[in-house]
Amino acid sequence: MSKLGFAVSIAFTYFTIIYLTGIGGLFSERSGIVNIGLEGLMIIGTVTGSFGAYYFGTKLGWGVPAGPLMGLLLGLACGAAFASIHALATVTFKIDHIVSGVVINLVAVGLARFLSTIFFGQATQSDPGQPHLHVISIPLLSKIPAFGNAFQGLSPVVLLPFLIVFPVWWVLYRTRWGLRLRSAGENPEATRSLGVAVAPLRWEGVLLSGAFAGLSGAFLSVEIVNNWREGQTLGLGFIALAALILSNWSPIRLLGAAFLFGFAQAIPLALRDWPIIRSIPPQFVNMTPYVVTIVVLAGFIGKVRPPAAAGRAYEGTTT
Amino acid sequence: MAATVTAPPATDGVAKARPEWLERAVAQALALLLAIVIALALGSVIIVLYGESPIDVYRAIFEAATTAKDGPAWVLAAATPLIFSALAVSICFKGGLFNIGVEGQYLVAMVTAAWAALHLGGVLPGPLLMWGVLVFAMLGGMVYAAVPGVLKVKTGAHEVVTTIMMNGIAVSLVAWALNGPLKYTNAPAGQNVDLRTDIFPSNAKVPELGHLLGFGPAPHLSWLFPLAAVAAVIVWFIVKRMRLGYEARAVGASAGSAQAGGINIGSVQVKLFLISGALAGLVGMQQILSNNASSTGGGYLPQNYEATLGFTGIAVAFLGQNNPIGIVFAAIFWAALSRGESILPIETEMPREFVIILQGILIMSVVITYTLARRRLDRRQTGRVIAEEEAIEQQEPDQPPPTIQEVTA
Amino acid sequence: MTDIDGAGSESSPPLVVLEGITKHFPGVVANDDVSLELRAGEVHALIGENGAGKSTLMRILYGMYPADAGRFLIRGEEVKIHSPRDAIARGIGMVHQHFVLVDPFTVAENVILGDEGGAVLDEDGAERKVRELADAYGFQIDPHATVEDLSVGEEQRVEILKALYRGVDILILDEPTAVLTPAETSDLFENLRRLRADGKSIVFISHKLDEVLDIADRITVLRRGVVVGETTPPQTSKAQLAEMMVGRPVLFRLDKPQVEIGEPVLELDDLTGGRLHGLSLEVRAGEIVGVAGVEGNGQRDLADAIMGLQTLEGGHVVLEGRDLGTLSTAEIRNAGVGFIPEDRHDQGLVLGMTLWENSVLGRQDDAPFVRRGVLSLRRIKDLARRLVKLFDVRARSIDVTAGALSGGNQQKLILARELETDPKLLLAAQPTRGLDVGAIEFVWRQILDQKAAGRGVLLISAELDEIYALSDRILTLYEGRITGEYPPDAPPEDVGRGMLGAVAMQGAG
């Protein structure tokens, strides 16, 4: 049964990625800006995070944990910076949100290559010797007989979702900023008519989405894979979107949705030898995460309620 | 129907200043020009940071595409799959749909085409085989595109995410095909075998075009290029002159009004995905059906097939402003820039990735300038119409309406 | 008149003075050197046609647009107002025609948005304050309720509370009664009288002259951005006000043609689904049936059901004896139904397309406009030119985008397009919404022409004036059901009761 434990630990790591990216998407969409460029933002996070960890950790010799932490921070910051393009396009220029998101994704791939040549001298992968944080084991849970190993050897970042879920909920529903942010996403005319500016709120939502997605990408390259490689985000940015939809834009329900998709990722990676899965051609098993996402979207899309003004450009004063 | 008796109309196509369509075309061209200027300007900043001269760099790129030995041929050949890809994206976009799945659709199409090439030789002799292969490619793309299309119509699942998921699935499908049904005979055993299909019979391949145009040996350039141009014309015709195009544009602009006007939205959307899939299917044909430059002379489906053509197609579609004719030129322009990639590290200090950045900035500028230009044009049109109405009102104030008896007597 | 006489009137100095306000939009002068005075303890009505500039003027006062010229004086002091926040700070509040409430939020959350009193929300405190405020003015409202669940009248009260919460002295109401039943309107007026007695200055923007004469202390008339008159109710009449608004004498009722009523053209039998709960009615040839009702009682569903845009759970739609149940929208149109939708942008025209492209919408399957899937541009453009000529659609060419046309011309285009097919039944939903008087008369004339030609017309409207002007029979719609049938000379109070649900079936329903 340690196989299951192994699968669960993999599920945890993908859960973390999906949750963090999803929370980013949550802030953006709640403010009224649809952000399908999460994948591209994650990509920027992966390449800059990897560079940060390598440069500060190895090159400058700051070691662990400073090096990897700088990597994570750099990924977060660069993700937010890159997201400002999406904010500029959608909030200031009122470009169609989906078009802008597609552009973000396209440009991110090229930009990552370009940055990689600057950082690492090569276009598609990073240098070896990139440090990562010391792994931890969760005290009680790792002693569970059957699959205690699921909770061993995890990156400490895995705790982050659990640490932020309540603060995020509280900020959204119990603070002035959260009330205003949500109003911008539901009915920006109401917000504006009461003298609260909509554009700054939406900028904040989008920048946050960049920060979280960037952090998530950095987590992937710094902590999980320990290097940067082109294409390592594997569509997780889109899967995070699906998780967000499934969770009906609730930070608490997102925990469950992210874990579902995280586990779908784990199947081809850890559970190949399981009874039924064993008899399916390996390439088909690889499709699992994608198929699960499609099934979820097809089944649930009618039953959820996105923020009412998400996707609509707010034109300013209405005539 | 009783006619009304009021002031004479001031219409009937009497164009006072400029006709609307011309105004629009001029605005689009200016927006494009502005975007290119912005991109080149921002690119210059990067060039200068690298210690190079922008003029040298841009000239190197320009020459690589035009005056260098096999430049033009390479450019036209590279533009070919981009044209098909961008057309596929843009026809869906007309209907308000985002087909990000061209990527996966052409992968699947390559598999179906390979199957046809390898197995239909007996049924389709001579040049028919090539046409058969192309048809099977289109069918493969259509079927694969139908999946997200039907899901969208039946369940409302947003096509952006589903098509991207389908892309991921397609990669695995190709891997499976190359490992299984289409695996090449006489493959040596072992771990690091370079997978591919068997080589296609020569009558499955598309003939070369280079020597016909006086380009000299140009292995990539084939009759697929003119076919792409023809496809652009066909797409233009469908969008502008056929009912399906009209319905698609209505659905894309105002689904509610389209529906109230009797248009069946779901049916239109599925048709768009099918046509898009068919076009997408042809994207990969150049790499497997032309004499691409490789050791074996091309004509098979390799494991290291060229991917990302689907995504680049989206960029080209934006650059061409979703207009079939614009797309042809945009594809050529894009390919010309890409040609510069290999030249840059040789002749300058710039890394080849600079071209990618330039292309990225270009897409962003085009999207923004085009949207802003269109919006300004709409505002101006509206203002002008209102002003003219005002003028007419001043000259001929509303007369008191006749009573019904006067009119129907 | 039992009005409580305002504490203001002639004696008190003006609270707000607008001087020389001028505002241009592309191609149009919305306000041209407008001057106005608002006094405490008074209801000041601002009337004019659509596009006369009354909303624009008030929005400038509220800081939503900058004026091109002119100034404001509040309590004698010149001020600059750059945003709604400034306006609120100066004691000016505005309730818009289309409410700006956040549906999933509670009443309290909607009221405090923007003035939350701290970075962390105090939900209980907010609800308490809102309840106190509501009680002080006699408003019936539950601060804890979610706005989504409120009635239109209650939503309006929330909007007014938003302004009162911020301590405004000047309250601007933009077309407040457009969406209210007669009973809710009278509730509103009671609340307004209480506010007036409290010394508030109320600006009442409206085009409903009967109501204006009822509630206003002073009336200012705008036409094409210019002040054309200032008066008080005792000194004027509805006809005089209308003439000032339009610039010429206005007919309020057109002569209805005498036509023999024929066989039923449309029969609706127990329609259920969406907001419809067993709706039945009948329209005969040569007859105009007017369905009166406050918005939100199933009007949209009714129109959609007839056009096949909404699936029904039960009931039948029968056109000249033929059950339309399984037909598609296109087939229903072909069977002879013309449709003037209540939302011309959402269901009528494709704004992004040109005028000529819109002319063929609804007939894109028919020869000679389409042959074997290919459009005949020549024939479509001929059609467009014909429509434009027939209905005097003011546009400089058929190539303009439909979005550039004025509301009146857009509606004319839709009318022309639908009537050109000579439908057996014309379904007209809110056909004159947002139109000025000239266009309204035009549309009414077309509808009466249909009757004269022996066609059937089903008119759905929230404007009682319109219902009375056109209908041969008046039906009231409430909560998805027909609650009453009235002759065209029935007193409005009776019809009003039917609109509120009092059932009074006097005949076939």
Question: Can you characterise this structure?
Answer:
The complex is a heterotrimer of chains A (319), B (409) and C (509). Chain A starts with a helix and ends in a 19-residue tail after the last helix. Chain A has one domain (2-303): ABC transporter involved in vitamin B12 uptake, BtuC, CATH 1.10.3470. Chain A has helices at 2-30, 38-59, 66-92, 97-120, 160-174, 176-186, 188-193, 198-224, 236-246, 251-270, 275-278, 282-286, 288-300. The mean pLDDT of chain A is 87. Chain A is mainly α and 319 residues long. Helices cover 67% and strands 0% of the residues of chain A. Chain A is globular and about 60 Å long. Chain B has 409 residues and is an all-alpha fold. Chain B is globular, with a radius of gyration of 26 Å. Chain B has 15 helices and no strands. Chain B starts with 19 loop residues before the first helix and ends with a helix. Chain B has a domain at 74-185 and 193-348: Orthogonal Bundle (ABC transporter involved in vitamin B12 uptake, BtuC). Chain C is of the alpha/beta class and 509 residues long. Chain C has helices at 54-61, 84-89, 107-112, 123-137, 152-165, 182-197, 209-215, 238-246, 299-307, 329-334, 344-348, 355-359, 377-391, 407-419, 437-452, 464-470, 492-499; strands at 14-25, 28-39, 42-47, 69-74, 77-79, 92-95, 170-174, 201-206, 218-223, 226-231, 264-273, 276-284, 288-292, 314-319, 322-323, 337-340, 370-371, 374-375, 425-429, 456-461, 473-478, 481-486. In chain C, the strands form five sheets. In chain C, strands 6-7-8-3-9-10 form a six-stranded mixed sheet, with helices on both faces. In chain C, a hairpin with a 2-residue loop joins strand 1 and strand 2 (28-39). In chain C, helix 13 (377-391) packs across helix 14 (407-419) and helix 14 packs parallel to helix 15. At the B-C interface, helix 8, helix 9, helix 14 and helix 15 of B face helix 10, helix 11, strand 18, helix 13 and helix 15 of C.
Summarize, please.
The complex is a heterotrimer of chains A (319), B (409) and C (509). By secondary structure, chain A is mostly helical.
Topology:
The complex is a heterotrimer of chains A (319), B (409) and C (509).
Chain A: H1 2-30, H2 38-59, H3 66-92, H4 97-120, H5 160-174, H6 176-186, H7 188-193, H8 198-224, H9 236-246, H10 251-270, H11 275-278, H12 282-286, H13 288-300
Helix pairs in contact in A: 1-8, 1-9, 1-10, 2-3, 2-4, 2-8, 2-9, 3-4, 3-8, 5-6, 6-8, 9-10, 9-13, 10-13
Chain B: H1 20-49, H2 54-66, H3 71-94, H4 102-119, H5 128-155, H6 159-179, H7 224-241, H8 243-253, H9 255-260, H10 265-281, H11 285-289, H12 309-319, H13 324-347, H14 353-395, H15 404-408
Helix pairs in contact in B: 1-14, 2-3, 2-13, 3-7, 3-10, 3-12, 3-13, 4-5, 4-6, 4-10, 4-12, 5-6, 5-10, 7-8, 7-13, 8-10, 12-13, 12-14, 13-14
Chain C: E1 14-25, E2 28-39, E3 42-47, H1 54-61, E4 69-74, E5 77-79, H2 84-89, E6 92-95, H3 107-112, H4 123-137, H5 152-165, E7 170-174, H6 182-197, E8 201-206, H7 209-215, E9 218-223, E10 226-231, H8 238-246, E11 264-273, E12 276-284, E13 288-292, H9 299-307, E14 314-319, E15 322-323, H10 329-334, E16 337-340, H11 344-348, H12 355-359, E17 370-371, E18 374-375, H13 377-391, H14 407-419, E19 425-429, H15 437-452, E20 456-461, H16 464-470, E21 473-478, E22 481-486, H17 492-499
Parallel strand pairs in C: 3-8, 3-9, 6-7, 7-8, 13-20, 13-21, 16-19, 19-20
Antiparallel strand pairs in C: 1-2, 1-4, 4-5, 9-10, 11-12, 11-14, 14-15, 17-18, 21-22
